[in-house]
Amino acid sequence: MEYILSPSILAADFAVLKEQIKAAEKGGAQWLHFDVMDGSFVPSISFGMPVLESVRRITDMFLDVHLMIVDPGRYAEEFARLGADMVSFHYEAAGSEAAAIAEKLHLLGKKAGIVISPDTPAESIRQLLPLFDMVLVMTVVPGAGGQTFIPSCLDKVRKIRSWINEGGLDCYVEVDGGVRSDNIAEMKEAGANVIVAGSAVFRGDPEKNAAELLKLIS
Ligand code: DX5
Ligand code: ZN
Questions:
Q1: 41-52: per-residue pLDDT in tens?
Q2: Is 13 a catalytic residue?
């Protein structure tokens, strides 16, 4: 299996964002994780469309957009059109609309991801697996970078990975929150193949940090 590192620019220094992105890419990171927070689904507000457009212009990296917003159906296509390669949104926010949103993204030629927060059981998205390209299992409560990962979330990663394998499905499993050099191997062993890391990449030297994290999962 291919293991992908997706550095979250939420932890980057926005005054020098381009340099930070280039450094993470040089370190071997394949994807870039883009955290959108609306101040409603989560308490904080991060960044949105104009920043995505600018980032799209300066890199060919795969843009992995994580929408932490209410009413994701209203905005998912716009993020796709502005350059996201994959748009992931929360099951808690989309509910019964999840399948329809995935379909709209697919019609635009984009990938679709479904996200579950720590309190949401894996079972709630089991039926949706064939419709999605990725499941993102949050390993912290969404809303901020730099938190400590919740180990019990890895049981959900194991379950979801086994359902994917049993069903012969083509679906990434991503983990997000609290990834560090001392727990990244656990994430991989549980069955994740896309690993988000914010502070572990952008605090310090992003090139060196990305290269070190990748070494631990390859
Ligand atoms: C949390 C975000 C994460 C966050 C990860 O709400 O979805 O992507 O940026 O940051 P670290 O790796 O610092 O926990
Ligand atoms: Zn995220």
A1: 999 999 999 999
A2: no
Characterize the bridge pairing of strands 31-37 and 62-68. Answer: parallel
Q: How many domains does the chain have?
A: 1
Q: What is the CATH number of the domain that holds 124?
A: 3.20.20.70
Dig out the tokens for 27 from the structure. Answer: 């370190």
Pocket residue to mutate for ligand 1, from 153, 196, 209, most atoms within 8 A of Cβ: 196
Cα distances (angstroms) measured from residue 141 to each of 33, 79, 98, 137: 17, 23, 20, 10
Instruction: Please tell me which residue in 64, 85, 133, 176 is annotated as part of the active site.
Output: 176
Ligand 1: residue whose CA is nearest its atom 10: 145
| pTM score, whole prediction | 0.98
pLDDT of residue 1: 84
Identify the bridge partners of residue 88 per DSSP, sorted by sequence position: 66, 113
Measured in angstroms, how far is the CA atom of residue 46 from the centroid of ligand 1?
12
Give me the residues near ligand 2 (ion), CB cutoff below 5 Å.
35, 66, 176
Q: Which atom of ligand 1 is nearest to the CA of 138?
A: 7
Segments forming the whole domain that contains residue 62 = 4-217
At 127-181, the pLDDT tens digits run: 999 999 999 999 999 999 999 999 999 999 999 999 999 999 999 999 999 999 9
* Average pLDDT estimate for 94-110: 98
